[in-house]
User: Which sequence fits this backbone?
């Protein structure tokens, strides 16, 4: 079964850091285009960051609000995706979803994790 | 690219037809326009990709259409489980964007 399981969310102080993890099963992470998407309470999803597959060059993209503060990375040996979040702001509070655009023809977010809650507050 | 969905809320009864709109601020390749369904307390899930292709396991009462800047999601005959929030999304540029959503509620 293809599955994504996030962890690492929690409470952080403004200016602090958190590292989210996303363990993949049922497929090889490095063959998919992976993204993090967040959703603040009562709001629409907001794309945060993308890591292209190895075949796609492995390049990264970031949304403007997080560029320079967040880093997306992958550990192929663990089939795990990460989001390193530094200099956190209160507006980063949201549920963070790990999502996968699997190899194929959808060019869409085929698989979503269950989400991990990040709260930034003093 | 900004995606604007309308209406914000749609009140219908089971068995009725629902038509949801997604308008883009500039042309979106149909290959990169998707629709997602989100039920309360759950993650969004893929419904339609490539503007008109149903994702695996999606019933044929769901259909997508459109091109350029105007896209539509149609649900032919509403079932009780269809009442949820629907989002359109474009991934044709390096910056992926979602619409603000349409809430489909029971009348």
Assistant:
């Amino acid at each position: 079964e293809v599955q994504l399981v996030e962890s690492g969310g929690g409470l952080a102080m403004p200016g602090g850091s958190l590292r989210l993890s996303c363990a993949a099963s049922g497929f090889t992470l490095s063959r998919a285009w992976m993204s993090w998407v967040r959703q603040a309470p009562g709001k629409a999803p907001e794309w945060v960051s993308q890591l292209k597959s190895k075949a796609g060059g492995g390049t990264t993209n970031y949304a403007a609000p997080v560029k320079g503060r967040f880093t997306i990375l992958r550990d192929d040996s663990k089939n795990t995706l990460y989001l390193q979040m530094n200099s956190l702001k209160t507006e980063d509070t949201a549920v963070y979803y790990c999502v996968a655009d699997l190899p194929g023809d959808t060019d869409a977010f085929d698989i979503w994790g269950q989400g991990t809650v990040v709260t930034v507050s003093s | 690219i900004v995606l604007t969905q309308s209406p914000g809320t749609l009140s219908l009864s089971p068995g009725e037809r629902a038509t949801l709109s997604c308008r883009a601020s500039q042309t979106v390749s149909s290959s990169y326009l998707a629709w997602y369904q989100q039920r309360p307390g759950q993650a969004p899930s893929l419904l339609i990709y490539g503007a008109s292709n149903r994702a695996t396991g999606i019933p044929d009462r769901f259909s997508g259409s459109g091109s350029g800047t105007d896209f539509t999601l149609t649900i032919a005959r509403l079932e009780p489980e269809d009442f949820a929030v629907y989002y359109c999304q474009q991934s044709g540029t390096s910056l992926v964007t979602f619409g603000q959503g349409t809430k489909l509620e029971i009348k």
